[in-house]
Amino acid sequence: MLKKGMTLYIIGLGLNDEKDITLKGLEKVRSADKIYLESYTAILQCGKERLEELYGKKVILADRDFVEKGSESMINEAKEKEIAFLVVGDPMSATTHLDLYLRAVKQNIKIEIIHNASVMNAVGIVGLELYKYGKTTSVVFPEEGWDVQTHYDVIKQNKASGLHTLCLLDIKVKEPGKEDLMNNRSAKGVEPRFMTVNQAINNLLSIEEKRKEKVFTEDTLCVGCARLGGNDMIVKAGDAKSLLTEDFGGPLHSLIVPGNLHFMEEEALTLWK
Amino acid sequence: MLKKGMTLYIIGLGLNDEKDITLKGLEKVRSADKIYLESYTAILQCGKERLEELYGKKVILADRDFVEKGSESMINEAKEKEIAFLVVGDPMSATTHLDLYLRAVKQNIKIEIIHNASVMNAVGIVGLELYKYGKTTSVVFPEEGWDVQTHYDVIKQNKASGLHTLCLLDIKVKEPGKEDLMNNRSAKGVEPRFMTVNQAINNLLSIEEKRKEKVFTEDTLCVGCARLGGNDMIVKAGDAKSLLTEDFGGPLHSLIVPGNLHFMEEEALTLWK
């Protein structure tokens, strides 16, 4: 029998279902001693059962608590075993996994990253050039006392340079709220929820109403996306007001606010109007 | 026997070798009647033979001429057959494929995109947050009479907003030069070449020498990357001057000019110094 390396594989699953894993990723999963699935920064469009069926192995769900606190034990396991840590999308698109990566490197764990598609490149299908996106932003569910307007400022800044803005929309999967954080405790099993394109537009319009800087009005051209990379993907382009009443279905949603348009980008957007 | 759909599959191969294709992509390739490999905007790290061995099928190379002129015939084929068009990286990260997509849609061809990793997300491994990248730019081989400084301006603009800049470095794979373009003819079989991190830095320093705006000096912190997503990936961080003498090996190279650094980003960069 071959002696196994002590390795932590951080493997991207891509955007949709169990078949979006790469051949390389699947090989590592099949040879791993233990498999964790990160389950709070993104949502898999298929159940964990379908992964288990494909892999022929048990998959352990890892929530935010696990990754931010408990992953120390996973790093320790990787000193003696092959551990596969599965991440929806691409592994290195989120800061949390960077933190995991750095902690493992410090402990001399061998790490291998298996890349995959993420929303940040799959959004290319909309037809706006990836080159011409400025800073990315996120729109979070408002919490009492926290008046977040960062996304409005990012759109403003990108627009001033003629650049597109990708707004990633919030998702809450058993994640601690402000109250939990202030009391330094884990999430009290909050119901999972995700922000819709409609909610994000409403959020931006309400900031516009306060600030009146004409950054995001009812006439602002927007592109709403749902389930990018999936067969049931929806992309719709139109002014903010018209998208407010469109139904984009289940998670995940994202919102794009285009900057200056090249004629080919304009042509591409007509596909979704 | 099942009746096949008339479909054009545009399938991302990921960044490194034949095993970076997704299971979904491989299924489509195996059921396709004809397989084309786009072979001029990026380089596969393995030979086409390894693809053919994995697929059990012949793969036809498609150069720029083919995609920009001849792909009309491929679109016609897709009216009666299943065609797989393979793209290194992710299919929708380059404008050329968007053009293909639009042309096919106009002719009522059914199209399916199979996403994969691209340099634009794989660059996350460096440890600079993907959120905080501004506009992307490319550095092209200088041609006589064309004094391109766009990348210098993009870096300047991104830095002013504290954002990182990803510079994609030029690659010439049998691509028409200025003279070819002016004479409206195809490339005269130019030798393939790719721009190194060192060349890109020299290019930026020479623009700095002319413009003296202190956007990119010998002291500017840079991150040079080669073969992102591959096992033989190289990432090196340091000031421009020190990276000038580093050897990054074979293609593809990219250069990152960081903006303001968060402490975790600083920590990540120390891995590569």
What does this structure look like?
2 copies of one chain form a homodimer. By secondary structure, chain A is α/β, with parallel strands linked by helices. Chain A folds into 2 domains: 7-117, Cobalt-precorrin-4 Transmethylase, domain 1; 120-270, Methyltransferase, Cobalt-precorrin-4 Transmethylase, Domain 2 (2-Layer Sandwich), CATH 3.30.950. Chain A is built from 10 helices and 12 strands. Chain A has helices at 23-31, 48-55, 64-77, 95-106, 119-122, 150-160, 178-182, 197-211, 240-243, 263-270; strands at residues 7-12, 34-38, 60-62, 82-87, 110-114, 137-139, 165-169, 171-172, 193-194, 221-226, 234-239, 253-257. Chain A has a 5-stranded parallel beta sheet, with helices on both faces. A 5-stranded mixed beta sheet of chain A has the order 6-7-12-10-11. A two-stranded antiparallel ribbon of chain A has the order 8-9. In chain A, strand 10 (221-226) and strand 11 form a beta hairpin. The longest helix of chain A is centred in the last third of the chain and has 15 residues, at 197-211. The radius of gyration of chain A is 20 Å and the shape is elongated. The N and C termini of chain A lie far apart (59 Å). The model of chain A has no long low-confidence stretch (mean pLDDT 88). Chains A and B meet through helix 1, helix 4, helix 5 and helix 10 of A and helix 1, helix 4, helix 5 and helix 10 of B.
